[in-house]
Design a protein that fits this description.
Layout lengths: L12 H8 L5 E5 L3 H14 L24 H21 L5 E5 H6 L1 H11 L19 H4 L3 H7 L15
Parallel strand pairs: 1-2
């Protein structure tokens, strides 16, 4: 489930069922770089493309109008919203078996990351593969028109670390 799922107009009783059944393992997928997360979200909204398949020959997908401009206050709101979600999920499910995995780890070492999940589920490891590919492989500096402005804006804030490594 995603943080905002099911949508507001749908039955959310599943959250109570999960919350009350302490035997359910919570696998909390996070993205460490919230700037990369927000940039990806904005690019998805702009292009309407949310996933790519390695078997699909779509030419040079990295340069298809992905350039975005982000407002510092919007970034700040997004960063706070997501970290609030993280804290809330951690608190709500503190009595559950719980594992955190990171998107970046899935990208860099999918097998080892999923082996951790298999272990938490008391399953034997299983060789995994995916036909999905990372969409935005450019650096954040190349994807965000006003990256320098954002870096300056957040320089003396708790979010400064998001600008240490500009690769998403």
């Amino acid at each position: 489930m995603l943080y905002n799922q099911p949508p507001d107009n749908q039955d959310k009783s599943i959250w109570e069922i999960i919350k009350n059944d302490k035997s359910i393992l919570i696998v909390h997928l996070k993205r460490e770089n919230l700037l990369a997360s927000y940039a990806s979200l904005k690019i998805g909204h702009k292009t309407g493309i949310w996933k790519e398949n390695i078997l699909k020959d779509d030419g040079d997908t990295n340069h298809r109008n992905n350039l975005i401009d982000l407002k510092p206050k919007d970034c700040e709101s997004y960063f706070s919203l997501i970290t609030d979600y993280w804290e809330n999920i951690s608190n709500i499910y503190s009595s559950h078996p719980y594992i955190e995995i990171f998107y970046e780890d899935l990208v860099n070492d999918k097998q080892e990351t999923l082996n951790e999940v298999f272990k938490a589920m008391y399953l034997e490891t299983y060789e995994v593969s995916s036909k999905m590919k990372k969409q935005n492989r450019e650096s954040l500096e190349d994807l965000i028109e006003n990256y320098g402005e954002l870096k300056t804006y957040f320089k003396r804030t708790k979010w400064h670390y998001l600008f240490k490594n500009s690769h998403p």
